[in-house]
Write a structure and sequence with these properties.
The chain has 469 residues and is an alpha+beta fold. The chain folds into three domains: 68 residues, no CATH class; 165 residues, no CATH class; 200 residues, no CATH class. The chain is 55% helix and 12% strand. It contains 16 helices and twelve strands. The strands form two sheets. Strands 3, 4, 5, 6, 7, 8, 9 and 10 form an eight-stranded mixed β-sheet that branches. Strand 3 and strand 4 form a beta hairpin. Helix 5 crosses helix 15 and helix 15 runs antiparallel to helix 16. About 1% of the residues have low confidence.
Amino acid sequence: MNLREIFGRVSSFFHKPERDRELDAEMQAHFEIAIEENVRRGMSEQEARRQALIRFGGVERAKEEQRASRGLPWLDVLLQDLRYTLRTLKRDPMFSVIAVLILALGIGANIAVFSVVNAILLRPLPFHDPDRLMWIAPADANGLSASTYSADAYDDLLTMNKSYEDVTGYFAFSTNDNFKLTGHGDPKPITGISVTQNFFAALGVTPELGRSFTKQEAIKGGPAVVLLSHAFWVRQFGGDRGLIGRSITLDNAPVTVVGVLPETFDFGAVFSPGTKVDIFVPVVMDDIRPWGNTLALIGRLKPSVSVAQAQAEAKVLFPKFYWSKKYPESVGGYTARPFELKQYVSGKVRRSLIVLWCAVGMILLIVCVNLSNLMLARAAARNKEFALRSALGAGRGRLVRQLLTESMVLAGMGAVLGLALAFVITSYLAHQGSLALPLLSSVRVDGAALAWTLGISVGAAVLFGLLPG
């Protein structure tokens, strides 16, 4: 079938009433001509009509053959099955409502859990080239102090390593409400994180407004500056774009707002689940140098370096780090076990989420089994209907296809209602700051969730519809 014929069939399908009228007129014209020819041959009018009908093989049959040759017969059959399905379900509303509600609960729970799994386990981190970001921690880390490094370790790693194009970090011992904002009504406690000057550049995060920190702003005595999170900027300053370059008062000292981070960046969701961070300030290395291990480190691999190469370098490089020259309290050989940042963020909850995902899958399977029993009972009550349809010429395949169509319609209705339920659940979860799950704020019903919905809906329809068929 060439492209022109395909286009003609599609056009005929969507202009069916007009094409049927043309066909009726054409068939009637040919029929009248055949009758006239038979009359001229000496037949009576009644015999001439009978012979014309024989010649055409039945007008309606001829029309059906013409329609099949010019249109999309499989689509016509599908529409017939759908119309019959809707009439059948309308005649049994109690069964239809119960089936759709059960499916909505099963499918909705699956979509909601898949959305959480997708956000935490499957979707890449919201950074530039996230696969190249590594979490650098001691191999024998036990507790927060043992999982961090000193400022000297950071400086030496930054200059001595050959695996990373950039190494960054943040002060790991910040607490909630560790800053106080004044000058805007009553003093307001806010949460801030101290980060290295190159933190946002290393992650590949570009401020939505303004700029990031400069090297001069991260040295002792440098300008006091701050970057605002998007949510805090909107909540506290009403999204005022003119705030960039102006001063706000933090802990009774003026600091200059140099930028606003994008809405997609949520420090707490990635590095400290359950924490809502309002501001970021540059960490001054000379201030924290005497404090020992305080920095959590992240490295961005060079494009040509693999994870295994970075891990091999760490085994050689880190035992050489001794800092007795500057601060005797930081003497000691450091170790490191770099691994993917994604693994650090989601690794602790991976097993629990997979178990939860399997559990809701089992729930959907139970739903399908129960619906199969309902469909079997319903099919037994429709034996007379199926016998009559078989007597009228419907084959076994057509009857099974009709039952599968009913299953698909029920599954489709359940999927639509389940999607609405999943939207409610995911919206609630995304705004639950009290739940210490990483990346929870990014949970949403996205394209992947819609594809998952389609897959499980078709699978469920086949599971609970095939056995009765």
